[in-house]
Design a protein that fits this description.
Blueprint (H helix, E strand, L loop, with lengths): L13 H15 L10 H29 L8 H4 L5 H26 L5 H20 L2 H16 L8 E7 L5 H8 L17 E7 L2 E7 L13 H12 L3 E7 L8 H10 L8 E7 L11 H10 L5 E5 L8 H24 L8 H8 L17 H5 L14 H7 L29 E2 L2 E2 L8 H17 L11 H31 L14 H11 L4 H11 L2 H14 L10 H10 L14 H20 L32
Parallel strand pairs: 1-3, 1-4, 4-5, 5-6
Antiparallel strand pairs: 2-3, 7-8
């Protein structure tokens, strides 16, 4: 399977993960809860907050887990490059399940919280535990991002396609061969270790697509001492199913002797299992295998003793034999892949073999003993006359009965005729409820009415004999006392309910003691006399107000007109007018402008509707502009300057 590592999304750090989750939670669910709200509403808000945070964390974890390919699907070539990838992804998966468990536990606790403070503290505890869990993922998240960056830099290698793998010592001509047979832009220099990573080139041969992989140069040293560049080459050799081209430089211009190159080939031979191996002798324009000294030639010929190893010769400098080497390797690779497919299905004799044979060995086909069993056909079926619609003596079908009785829409099929009962007479019973092969009606006792009449007569006899009368009779006086006490208790309960209802209706209105509601005028006059204030006019005015206002005003006007103009005690007309205006009755703003009781009720309903919003927001009135301290400051303080965001 071809894995596109470059498409994996960047993995955030633990702090970035927390900032994303908490910021999204605060934007989607800003705090709008007050202590005056119902406890059910407070619980629901904080439950949604915890659930949304958990869902956001789970969504981010799933994005990370789904972004990386499944370890069971990727090729071992990629899996060995990062052996700790499975551990890090497992930690992310475990953290996702723990976050879901935390959310489920704290939602259950918030369900039984009794106050705003308890709900808020439980929410803080839940989010705190989730944040602690994310902070512990600091190293796995950082490691996964490094794996993504490293694997993204690797070329796009398809481990399942036809592949030519080029390996050998540094500076033996591997990159030159790759550049000659493909269009890969490979750096070619006359010094060692020019290639520092895997390079991939593609070419076509016989309308088939091939890929050629150039590996960095290998050195004959222990596996523990090899660097990351050499480990990439070894991993490619071990896990890629390909044709291997091991390059030799017999001229020793690469800086390594022929003996060293032979020893490297022998050390890597365990990695060549189940692969086509070609010994490619490069730079034949300088030295050919025939020009070697006898001792070196004999040592070189030992490598060709194996039947699976084939020698090819070329010169990348003069392009001599380059296409021949490519064609020979491709032909052998195509034939080997075709033979492997045939071997997996059948063997050379045409019989089932390979993997298919292994599967067939596990399948057991049961064969009955005693020869061939013939099909059994009952005699009644054999002797049954073939149905012929034109035959008047044919067996009657349900369709024939339907046509004889009026056809479709007139005739109804009798479903009771197919009932399987012990007695065919039961099929047409009035109560067709079946139980254990019988109708329910069959269980009805025919003497049920006589038995019921006998029971009723026995009941009347026992009642006449006083069988049901109680032996202890309550005295009439005692019963009357009990009834009186019960009535008093009910009255007391009604008073208690009325007092509670009155207290509840007062709400925020002050309760004025009854002794301060009304006070006599004499107490006011005595109090003012003690202070040294003359209360004569006060008493006269109070007595005058107790009479009819119109009558007193008329008399005062008549006395002023008819009396002496020079009378000092007489009151001027302007003063009377000002007094009468001052004593004019105050208007009742609640009843003014209201036509009748219906309009008054409608106005009260409108007033309550207008106040409903204030009650819902726990406001005391329209002028209440209080903002509680629970409101998040960063939502109202405008744009923040540079700084930390961990205070959330």
């Amino acid at each position: 399977m071809k894995t596109t590592w470059k498409d994996i999304a960047p993995v955030p750090t633990s702090q970035e993960f927390l900032d994303i989750v908490l910021s999204r939670t605060q934007r989607r669910l800003p705090t709008q809860i007050r202590s005056g709200f119902k406890i059910s509403r407070i619980r629901g808000f904080y439950t949604r907050k915890v659930k949304f945070t958990s869902e956001t964390c789970t969504e981010k974890f799933d994005a990370i887990l789904n972004g990386f390919p499944r370890l069971a699907d990727i090729h071992p070539f990629h899996a060995d490059l990062r052996d700790h990838l499975k551990i890090s992804l497992g930690q992310i998966s475990t953290a996702k399940h723990l976050v879901e468990t935390i959310s489920r536990d704290y939602v259950r606790l918030i369900k039984y919280a009794q106050s705003l403070y308890q709900c808020k503290q439980l929410k803080r505890a839940a989010l705190g535990r989730m944040a602690t869990l994310v902070k512990r993922l600091k190293d796995p998240l950082l490691y996964l991002d490094q794996v993504r960056e490293h694997l993204g830099r690797l070329p796009s290698i398809d481990p399942t396609t036809r592949t030519l793998l080029i390996c050998g010592y540094p500076n033996v001509g591997k990159s030159s061969f790759l550049k000659s047979v493909t269009r890969a832009d490979v750096e070619v220099e006359p010094y060692a270790f020019t290639t520092k990573s895997l390079f991939v080139g593609h070419f076509d041969y016989k309308y088939l697509r091939f890929q050629a992989i150039d590996t960095p140069g290998l050195l004959d040293s222990p596996l523990e001492s090899k660097g990351p560049i050499e480990l990439q080459s070894i991993t490619a050799i071990a896990h890629l199913r390909s044709a291997l081209l091991y390059f030799f430089d017999l001229s020793e211009q690469c800086g390594y002797s022929v003996h060293a190159q032979i020893e490297l080939f022998k050390s890597l031979k365990p990695l060549f299992a189940n692969k086509l191996v070609f010994l490619v002798v490069n730079k034949i324009d300088v030295m050919r295998p025939e020009d070697l000294d006898p001792e070196t030639a004999a040592e070189f010929q030992t490598l060709l003793s194996d039947a699976d190893v084939e020698m090819l010769q070329l010169s990348c400098n003069t392009q001599e034999g380059v296409q021949e080497v490519k064609n020979a390797a491709c032909e052998r690779l195509i034939a080997d892949r075709a033979a492997a497919k045939v071997k997996a299905g059948t063997n050379n004799s045409g019989e089932v073999g390979g993997r298919l044979a292994d599967v067939m060995k596990r399948i057991h086909v049961a064969v009955p003993e005693g020869g061939v069993r013939e099909t059994f056909i009952p005699e009644a079926i054999k002797n049954m006359k073939k149905y012929d619609k034109t035959d008047p003596e044919r067996r009657r079908l349900a369709r024939d009965v339907e046509e004889e009785n009026g056809g479709a829409g007139v005739y109804n099929v009798d479903l009771r005729a197919d009932y399987l009962l012990e007695n065919d007479e039961w099929k047409q019973d009035r109560i067709p409820e079946l139980f254990e092969g019988k109708n329910v009606y069959d269980y009805v006792d025919p003497d049920i009415e006589a038995k019921l009449q006998a029971l009723e007569e026995e009941e009347e006899r026992l009642e006449a004999e006083g069988f049901y009368e109680s032996e202890e009779e309550i005295d009439d006086e005692e019963e009357a006392q009990i009834r009186t006490k019960a009535e008093l208790i009910r009255e007391k309960q009604a008073l208690i309910r009325n007092e509670a209802r009155m207290r509840k209706s007062l709400k925020n209105r002050a309760v004025i003691p009854r002794k301060f509601v009304k006070q006599p005028l004499s107490e006011l006059e005595e109090g003012l006399d003690v202070l040294g204030v003359d209360t004569t006019d006060l008493g006269l005015r109070a007595r005058a107000q107790s009479n009819t206002r119109g009558r007193s005003v008329t008399r005062s006007r008549m006395g002023t007109e008819d009396g002496d103009a020079m009378d000092v005690d007489s009151t001027p007309r302007d003063r009377l007018r000002s007094k009468s205006r001052a004593r004019s009755p105050q208007t009742n703003r609640r009843d003014d402008g209201v036509a009748d009781i219906t309009a008054r009720d409608k106005a009260d309903r409108q007033m309550k509707l207008g106040q409903r919003k204030m009650n819902r927001m726990a406001k005391q009135g329209e002028a209440d502009r209080h903002v509680g301290t629970t409101m998040p400051k960063h939502l109202f303080a405008g744009k923040r300057s540079m700084g930390k965001t961990s205070r959330r």
